[in-house]
């Protein structure tokens, strides 16, 4: 388990009964979380929230706000600044558990004695993009959603990275990778956060279990001769981290034996009871230092 335990502006205060209680800066949210399957005794903290997201029996859900909030506010992670805003689909525009992966990537990039080129696929609002850019890498950021890409551009400006090389692409990730291969473009590192199911900007269908291996094989064709890391993150229910480990061992490690593969869970510490909230899985190949 890799914990994202260096936050100051974010906190998982409590969790249980299928919900989590979080602090985003000075704002307290109560949101559903299917991983929090244990019992919790609700105290006053659960009642005194600024926003509560309720699931609907028909699917989806809605927010109930007890405090009039700004449309958005910002929180910091170390030297990075991100826009936070509650969306209609429960999310806030940031996955704080990913900070452990940001730290890993920043550390690997800083250790290199050359300019590193990173490809971030399914890049969302760009947490990994900003982390890699701030560490000195050139980054190509690809996501099928124009709205999320615009949000990522805002995060770039908030983090003071607008003068760095970050190229934003709205495209289907697999199609983009295949075009990069035909163009002869190469990358030293690739990070991806593929969804369980999704659609590209032109209706392309993505299914994790059907398309992941094809995407990884395509990505390997655009890696440089000296890759630094290959990181996969997933929230797909029912997929074990061992699946990612096995895939990377039979692809990346086979082609680049001067490296190592690691896989496991990412999680957040829960303040109240010193428990851990599991928040998905990761698998990574990295070159040996």
Architecture overview:
The protein has 289 residues and is α/β, with parallel strands linked by helices. It has 8 helices and 17 strands. Helix 2 runs parallel beside helix 3 (127-134) and helix 5 runs parallel beside helix 6. The longest helix is centred in the middle third of the chain and has 13 residues, at 146-158.
Write the layout of secondary structure elements.
Layout: E1 2-3, E2 10-16, E3 19-24, E4 27-32, H1 44-47, E5 51-55, E6 61-65, E7 73-77, E8 80-84, H2 99-110, E9 117-121, H3 127-134, E10 138-143, H4 146-158, E11 166-170, H5 173-183, E12 189-192, E13 197-199, E14 205-207, H6 208-220, E15 229-234, H7 241-250, H8 252-255, E16 259-270, E17 275-287
Parallel strand pairs: 1-16, 4-5, 9-10, 9-12, 10-11, 12-15
Antiparallel strand pairs: 2-3, 3-4, 5-6, 7-8, 13-14, 15-17, 16-17
